[in-house]
Amino acid sequence: MQFLDLNKFGEIGSNATFVKIGAFNLLIDSGLHPKKNGNEALPDYNAIKDESIDFIFLTHCHLDHIGSLPISARNHPEAPIITTVPNLSLAPRMLRNSINVMKRQGEELGLSEYPLYLHRDVDHVRKKLLGLAFGKSRLFNKNGDALEVILHPAGHVAGACAVEIIHQGKRIVFSGDVLFEAQRTLPGAQLPKGEIDTLFLETTRGTTQREDASNRRTEVHRLIESINQILERKGTCLIPVFALGRMQEIFKILQESMDDGTLKRAPVYSTGLGIDICNYFDKINQRTGLIDFNLKILDELGIKAPDPKLKPGRNIKNKGIYIMSSGMMVDYTPSYKVAASLLPHEDNGLCFVGYCDPDTSGGKLLEAHQQHEKNFYFEAYDYLSPIRASIERFDLSGHADREALLDYAISSKAKNIILNHGDSEARKWFFESLQEAMPEAKVLDPVPSKEYSV
Ligand SMILES: [Zn+2]
Ligand SMILES: [Zn+2]
């Protein structure tokens, strides 16, 4: 088997792996780099431009995995796109949103190549999507060779899967993004059991050591306590969230906590793509039962749209709980806008519940807070704000703890382990820990676009 990691910059970046196995050429994920712009954000598709592709796989609908799928599908129009049943509806929705975001960014940043694809490319993706049920094996034949494909639940976000490929008795597993613990809306990952030959492993949390006492349940409890404190001092609470997955989980947590009386009742505000995703989750729940979410949750919370006329520095009039994307407070997004109103007022509070890249505004604000800096600069608004609102972090990550992934790799007795989806320090921890725990295994931290044989 040969493979090329097409993610140009390493890191979490634009995930895409090209794999040659027997008669088959496969592409696993087609991401877009969340921190790069324009063509730079694409995987290195040039490296495979002369190759034919038999199947494109989509592990889940976060942009670092799906964001350039219309381009890989346009380059290889014959290839079916294999994914899970929930992604049949989620994938086109996320891609259409991505077109709108690129159109806006194209104007703001003066990037003539934006949008990188059009709605007709998404229409093509929609036609090529092939949904497989979890755990059901499917056999594909080509030129007398055969490939067996099984998708496994990966937790992480609705529709997420790990991909298992069996070829001539060899098992190859692509973990995708994984969370073993259950979320309120989703059961945890069930990765393939037994011995594996080659394991492609995500490494997101390689540098994060969880404090012993904190697990998901205690973190939720701590979050509810913090929201209560902010509401008691008559402040407004902002929770920046990813539109796909985390927003719906937070809605469910709020609704259940208000229901059982642990959280004070307060108006809840939200807007944008995440609200639309709630409708999709409700439909997927009705059709497949794979997501534990329904629209009654929104009704019970009585969600309202925020005042569109917010001004940086001027405190929000409509107090309550704001559940806004983006999760990393990317410039100009609703969470960024609300934060610029809340931050200079000490009655308010910001609660971060997911990963923030250090280069994003969310990451920079967390760093400024940790360094006890007095001010934070909202660059997009040219507004220097005093940091007076409370700022807290809660570990509700969608990614497995590093120790859990390490245990999984050990239990798989994999002969080859290929690291991906992590910054260099995170990969280093996995590289060293795996080498120590599995001295027989070949562990690879691949150089982008270089061909490897395993
Ligand atoms: Zn993801
Ligand atoms: Zn990812």
Task: Please describe the structure with a list of short key phrases separated by commas or semicolons.
454 residues, alpha/beta, Rossmann fold, seven-stranded mixed sheet, binds zinc ion
> Could you report the average pLDDT, rounded to the nearest whole number?
96
Shape, principal axes of CA atoms: globular
> Structural class of the secondary elements?
alpha/beta
The small molecules bound here are: zinc ion
Q: How many discrete domains?
A: 2
The CA-CA distance between the termini, in Å, is 6 Å
- Corresponding CATH architecture of the largest domain: 4-Layer Sandwich
Largest sheet: 7 strands, mixed
- Per DSSP E runs of 2 or more residues, the count of β-strands stands at 21
How many helices? The count is 12
Poorly predicted sequence stretches spanning 5 or more consecutive residues: none
CATH topology of the largest domain: Metallo-beta-lactamase, Chain A
Q: What Rg, in angstroms, do the CA atoms define? A: 22 Å
The CATH superfamily of the largest domain is known as Ribonuclease Z/Hydroxyacylglutathione hydrolase-like
Portion in helices = 25-40%
CATH domain class of the largest domain: Alpha Beta
Strands of the largest sheet, in order across it?
6-5-4-3-2-1-21
Explain this structure.
By secondary structure, the protein is an alpha/beta fold. It folds into two domains: 2-208 and 398-453, Metallo-beta-lactamase, Chain A; 216-393, 3-Layer(aba) Sandwich (Rossmann fold). Helix content is 31%, strand content 21%. It is built from twelve helices and 21 strands. The chain has helices at residues 63-66, 69-75, 85-109, 119-128, 216-232, 246-259, 273-288, 296-301, 334-342, 361-370, 402-412, 424-437; strands at residues 2-5, 17-21, 24-28, 55-57, 81-84, 129-132, 138-142, 145-153, 161-167, 170-174, 198-202, 237-240, 268-270, 321-324, 349-352, 375-378, 383-386, 390-393, 416-420, 442-444, 451-453. The strands form four sheets. A seven-stranded mixed β-sheet has the order 6-5-4-3-2-1-21. It has a seven-stranded mixed β-sheet with strand order 7-8-9-10-11-19-20, with helices on one face. Strands 13-14-12-15-18 form a five-stranded parallel β-sheet, with helices on both faces. Helix 2 (69-75) packs across helix 4, helix 3 runs antiparallel to helix 7 and helix 11 crosses helix 12 (424-437). The longest helix has 25 residues, at 85-109. It is globular, with a radius of gyration of 22 Å. The model has no long low-confidence stretch (mean pLDDT 96). One zinc ion (ZN) binds at residues 60, 62, 156-157, 177.
